Automatic annotation (TrEMBL), chains A, B:
Species the sequence originates in: Pseudomonas vranovensis
InterPro entries attached to this UniProt entry: Glutathione-S-Trfase_C-like, Glutathione-S-Trfase_C_sf, Glutathione_S-Trfase, Glutathione_S-Trfase_N, GST_Zeta, GST_Zeta_C, GST_Zeta_N, Thioredoxin-like_sf
Name of this protein: Maleylacetoacetate isomerase
Family listed: Belongs to the GST superfamily. Zeta family.
Matches recorded under PROSITE patterns: GST_CTER, GST_NTER
Domain GST C-terminal: from-to ranges: 86-208
Domain (GST N-terminal) ranges: 1-81
């Protein structure tokens, strides 16, 4: 498999964690978003939306959108499982993943920040915007996750795959996490886990 | 089951379509987003994020986030299926759903539009913002869906569950769909389908 991604992209980072948890080998093909490589003709020919991540599977087909890619990996490479067996518990884990994937991350995607700057907002206003969405979203996540271990128990799962990259973004944007003890517990635990370490932006081939 | 929703909410509309396609009965409990009922204490006690939709299942547990709710319905009430059997085709359908659910809808959610107004943007600027994200996102959807029938074939599925509510929003915001013939074909077909008719905002108990 080949992964088109960018070291600092939150959604690429999610896919890297899922691949690492499942111990799947992948060739990384970095797409430099700051240089606009995602809008170059050869990449648009592959993925018309011009976004990362995109996963080329061994049959040659290209899968797009991190939620779809991660569910694909879970279906085709079921062990270790990212989701529990019980449908309600699966929905709880997917609920936290969707809250992060729909209600937090899209609001501070690089394309949104560029649009805000085009509307005349300076860095202070853009950072306030980012802080608003991340803080509000993580406050909801804090109430939905469990009291010990990873988000939902002793083993990392789908919610952790989404939360850890979101916390990397929160750190970049200097978000105060002191009010979120459960989230900080999960973050500390993930730091000790080899799959999360392997997927970290600083460890990627395109990291500066 | 009880569905907390709002007639005009894009994500509530998705869940209503999924329920209708699977012919599941649900009691609707409207939450008036314009009156701020989602921020009232009794609703926040149920769903700390203060958002709709939320589905109370018969065991009493509350499921949140439309992507998680719809996957739950697919797992517990598998027929008729919203997703095909083949993992790659499942990923393609989920890719379109995620594109709409992550890259279009979150950018014109009512909370985001309120935040833009708080930053001093007038209706014209807010409408331009909305148009930018819907048009750009639908242009990508147009390239990802199939050449006949619903998004991916003769029967409606997950991508249609997301697309039709997004088109309702596009219509409200006067987005030009003339460049998207595949999308317009799906919209015309859905208009003839009873489940989509039943789930339409105009048919809900809280519609004006």
């Amino acid at each position: 498999m080949e992964l088109f991604g960018y070291y600092r992209s939150t959604s690429s980072y999610r896919v890297r964690i899922a691949l690492a948890l499942k111990q799947l080998e992948v060739q990384q093909l970095p797409v430099n978003l700051l240089k606009g490589e995602q809008r170059e003709a050869h990449f648009l020919a592959l993925n018309p939306q011009g976004r990362v991540p995109a996963l080329k599977i061994d049959s040659g087909e290209l899968l797009v959108q991190s939620p779809a890619i991660i569910e694909y990996l879970e279906e085709v490479y079921p062990q270790p499982a990212l989701l529990p067996q019980d449908p309600v518990r699966r929905a709880q884990a997917r609920g936290v993943a969707a809250l992060i994937g729909c209600d937090i991350h899209p609001l501070h995607n690089v394309s949104v920040l560029n649009q805000l700057r085009a509307l005349g907002h300076d860095d202070a206003e853009v950072n306030q915007w980012i802080g608003h969405w991340i803080s509000q979203g993580l406050a909801a996540v804090e109430q939905l996750i469990g009291d010990q271990g990873f988000c939902f128990g002793d083993e990392p799962g789908l919610a952790d795959v989404y939360l850890i990259p979101q916390l990397y973004a929160a750190e970049r944007f200097n978000i105060d996490l002191s009010g979120f003890p459960r989230i900080r517990r999960v973050a500390a635990l993930a730091e000790t886990h080899s799959a999360f370490a392997q997927a970290h932006p600083s460890r990627q081939p395109d990291a500066p």
